[in-house]
Every structure is written in C-alpha cells, then in structure tokens.
Amino acid sequence: MNPLLQPFDTPFHTVPFDKIKTEHFLPAIEEAIKQGKAEIDEAVHSEEAPSFSNTIEHLEHAGELLDRISTIFFNLNSAETNDEIQALAQKISPLLTEYGNDILLNEKLFKRVKAVHDQKDSLDLNPEELTLLEKSYKGFVRNGALLSDSDKEKLRAIDKELSSLSLKFGENVLKETNAFSMEITDEADLAGLPESTKEMAKMTAQQKGKEGWVFTLDYPSYVPFMTYADNRALREKLYRAFSSRAFKDNEFNNSEIVKKIVNLRQERAELLGYKTHAHFVLEERMAESPDKVNHFLNDLKQYAKPSALKELEDLKAFAKSLGGPEDLQRWDSGYYTEKLKKERFSIDDEMLKPYFQLEKVVDGVFKTANKLFGLSFKENKDIPVYHEEVTAYEVTDESGKHVAVFYADFFPREGKRAGAWMTSYRPQKKVNGKDIRPHVSNVCNFTKPTATKPSLLTFNEVTTLFHEFGHGLHGMLADGTYPNLSGTSVFWDFVELPSQILENWCFEKECLDLFASHYETHEPIPAELVQKLKDSATFMEGSGTLRQISFGLLDMAWHGQDNHGVESVDKFEHEAMDDCNLLPNVAGSNMSCSFSHIFQGGYSSGYYSYKWAEVLDADAFELFKEKGIFDRETADSFRENILSKGGSEHPMILYKRFRKHEPDVKALLRRAGLIS
C-alpha cells in the first residue's frame, strides 16, 4: 500500500512523513498523473455546453492528488534531500512538465476555456471567480495554446529542458556548498571570533571527524567568520570559496547551465510572442514591464549610490585608522563595518544575541501573531515530521477554532539548501461549502545550539524569522475559495509585503518586550539597547540598498534582452553590475552561477520585487505606527484586505482598500534614511 495514494490518517490529514519512503514517490506520481489526465478528459469530452462550473472550476480541482504528492516531494528535495531524491527529481520533473503541457496545449480543452472567457461579461461572476477565469485563460495563452502544432512541440521540448537544467543548477550549488570546509588547528587563527562561533566550529569539526575547528559555507558559519575573524588571509580564503561556488573548473560549474537557461527562456518568450522573458514575466506583475522595473531600480539608485559612496569613504578611513588595508577588498567590508557600527552606536550582534534565544524569539513571533490576529500556537507531537529537528504546531483562533498546521525547521544540515523560505504542504480552499485549512512550513538555517549555549540568533536572523513567519501568516490566514488564488498565490512583487512588513515589529520596544530577555539572567532587553538598535537601523543603508539594486539589475540584464551572443558569464555579470560595484571585483568569483533565486527559484525577472515590496511595507507600516503597532482595527483591516484575500483580486485594488491610497516610494526612502 503506497501511503501517498491513501487518505492521510493523521491529525488534520497532515503528511504521514513517518510512513513515506523515497521509493513511494515515482509510482505515486505516475498514478496521480493518470488520475489527473482522467479528470481533465472529463471536461474535454463533456457534452454539456462549457460553463464556469463544468470547465473553469473543474480544471481548478483536477489533478489535486498530483499537486499534493509533487508538493511533498519537492519540499523534501529542498529541506531534506539526498542523492537518491535528487536523482529521482531528474526523472519526476520532466513527467510533471509533460503533464502540464498536455493540459495547456490541449486544443479541445482550450476551446472550452475560451468559450467561457468569451462570455465572461454576461456570467455575473464575483471578483474572485472573474480572477480565476482570467488566470485560467491567460494560463493557456501564456503557455502556448494559440501556437501551431510544430511550435507547441518546440515549447514542450524547451519546458522539459528548462525543468531539468533548473534542478541541476541547484544540485551543483548544494554540492559545492557541502564540498568545502576550512579546517583550523591553530587557535590563534580564531582571534576576534565570539566564543559561540568558536564553539559551533568545534562542534562541526567533531561531527566531521576532524581536529580543531571547522568552518563551512553555511550562513551561520560563514557570516560570523567574515564579520569577526581578525585573520584577513582566512577571511579571503572563505570569501573566495563562497563567491566561486559552481564557478570553478569542475563538473559542478554552472556557467553553461546559466547560458542555456537564459537562452531557452528567451526562445520560449519569442515563441509566445513576447520580446523577452522579462516582458513575458512582468505582464503578470504589478510592475508590468522591464522599462518600469529598470526605471524603478535606477530611480532608487540615484538616492542610494551617493550615500553608499560616502559610507565607503567613511569605512576606508575607519579601517585605515585601525591600521587596516589602504584598499578595502570584499572580504574586509563586513569585518570593518561591524567594528565601525560598534564604535558609532556601541552595539553589535554579540551584545544583542544573548537576548535572542531561538525558542523565545519563536514564542515572540507567536505572541505578535496573537496580539495582531488572535492566533495561538500549540506544539502537537502527534503530527508526523520529516526530520527530528522539525516542530509541528496546531494553530487556533480566539474561539479555539482550527486555523492551520504550522511546521518550523530552523537549523542547517547537509540535506537542506541554504537560505530561508516559506512553503505549504496543503493550500487553503473551500470545497462544497467546507473550509479546508492550510498546512504551512517555515524553513531556515539559523545558528545551532552548542554544548554550553542554546541557539542565540543574530538580529538579522531575528528579522529573517519574522520575515518568513509573515509569509506563513499569508498562508495560514488565507480565506479564499480556490487553491490557485489562495494565500501566497499572488503577483510575485506583492508576495513580499506580508513578510517584509512583519520585520518592522522587530525594531519596536513594545514587541521586543514580548520575547527579548537575556538567556541567563532573564532580564528584559534594556531600553537603551533598543534605542541603539533603532539608531543603527539605517547604518550603511545606502550600501545595502545598492547591493539589492545590483542583484535586481543583474536579473533584468539576464532576462530583459536577447543574450544569445553572450560568451562569458563573468564578463556579462561585471558589465551588468559595474555601476553598483564599489569594491574591486575578485577574479574567480561569480554571482550568477550560484544565484539560485533566479535560476532555480521563481524570481527570474522578479528579484526587483524585494525593493518593490519594501515600498509597500514601509508605506503600510506608517499606518501601524500612526495607529499603534498592535492596533487591532488596523490589524483586522490588514488581515481582511491583504492576508485573507490571497490573489483573489488585483493587488493594487487590495492595497488601496487597506491603505486608502497608492504606495508612496518616499516612505521607503524616509525609513532608509536616504531622504529626510
């Protein structure tokens, strides 16, 4: 009996991870594809006239078994993978691509969808139904329904190759990350490092059967070393290893894969009648066009670059005053930035970390959700998890009604990709009047506990936890009818609003008092430390903004023009980012070859959306600041108009309903200290 094909006999019908084996996936997916095709055929061969119900709604629910199984599989491939799962992904991805194309390139099915779309004005649909109809129709058109048979075959081949290349790109980055470790046996080489970092490195060495201390390219190991280690040569060694991932002369080099992905995306866009991949993508975004994105990024750059240049001059002078190098290199900036921050504001991460014990921060984000939205979180050990480090919670509202299941997975391990993300195992939807509640997961890579200390987070890790939990709330508080419009199923440049706005609470004493207490003395975080935190919030903001802009411009350079003539990924990247690069380029380093957001994740032509959504969140949080950061009326409006609505209407309509006006870009510039 394949557990993936049975009803889940678990609390809240959660995934029975304890029963699922890797060998269950392929046969389950093959069977689910058969079922999905049969469900599609029902609509295709229906003798009834096409209607919203028998065509559009039927399509929305067809293939739900396949969606469920493939979601579980690819979530595990990100959070708990191994060679066997990765090999299986290379088999499963083309099957899913082919299945998707069989639907979207089915002429008879498209005729029925088009027939319903042609009469949309006379169907008396509500806004959510109308959005689903438009999304369904565009889904077919944007995936080749209007193409000739020969062009449809070309599209199928392109999609199949793209799905395989994207997987290979991610596997190469993960293998390169896992392959490197820096072993240190002389304790003098650890000068400057906090005790907690040294202890973690000692633990990593023991786990790997090594002597001394081991540092890896995982963020909780890499970032503290680059920030605090006095040994400049070792900082350089670690930086070069990190920045050259998947760009070395070996089997894991992603250079050719990057070019292939970019060229195939361009060919696909042209096949569908678009000028570039960016034109194709941005048709379904708030930003609408590459011109608007480039204008937005370059407009921000006008404010950020002068500030960043001034910050760099200050940093150089400061480094020189400490006997540092004349010309700062990339492995120096984090180190001297941290020292300058401490001198200016008498604050650094090591002062803050004792107040940010992971368990307390998690409790704090739960209390924040309770004060804003009335949610409660209770651990449920009966819910199966996919790794012993994962915790499952039952989420209820103020009346005790079940809202969601929430999984938390916080520590790095070899089978988990880097970074932090939110995902879901089951979307919220309504079927036959019944509200099916979501199963949502946050996956992060935070500092692990050691033999003598609990997991103590940097402030950046605290904001990351709040950020991902904001995405989680978007999923958990969804209240729509259709799964493809529910929760985070929104325009990509709108999806970061719920996550980024929640970061703002981390700077407010009223929120910090809920959880920030010293892990040993239990004393609350001192008011003066909170003030220093706020005062330092805009420190080096010009440089940070310019860095994000450079990533957005690189993304647009790869996808906003035809790049078939590109020979050198490295040269292309340098030219694309040159105007934002204030430190010397490092030979052998390359961003594109490990830029998983745009070559493995869903951010191609969309990296700008982080800054775009920052405009939304800065503008939206000004209302919370005005009314009170825990004002229930404002929170209820945010829940009602943003979090619960998902993608049921155009995001600008939803935003204006909450804020009563369009977002003001100056709100971001004010918060960043780039204008007064």
SSE order and pairing:
Blueprint: H1 25-44, H2 52-61, H3 64-79, H4 83-104, H5 107-118, H6 127-141, H7 149-179, E1 182-184, H8 195-207, E2 213-215, H9 219-228, H10 232-243, H11 255-271, H12 277-282, H13 290-321, H14 330-345, H15 349-352, H16 358-373, E3 376-379, E4 391-396, E5 402-409, E6 421-426, E7 429-431, E8 434-436, E9 439-443, H17 459-476, H18 497-503, H19 509-512, H20 527-535, H21 541-559, H22 569-577, H23 596-599, H24 609-627, H25 632-643, H26 651-659, H27 665-671
Parallel strand pairs: 5-9
Antiparallel strand pairs: 1-2, 3-4, 4-5, 6-9, 7-8
Features:
single chain; five-stranded mixed β-sheet; Glutathione S-transferase Yfyf (Class Pi), Chain A, domain 2; Neurolysin, domain 3; 676 residues; alpha+beta; 4 domains; two-stranded antiparallel ribbon
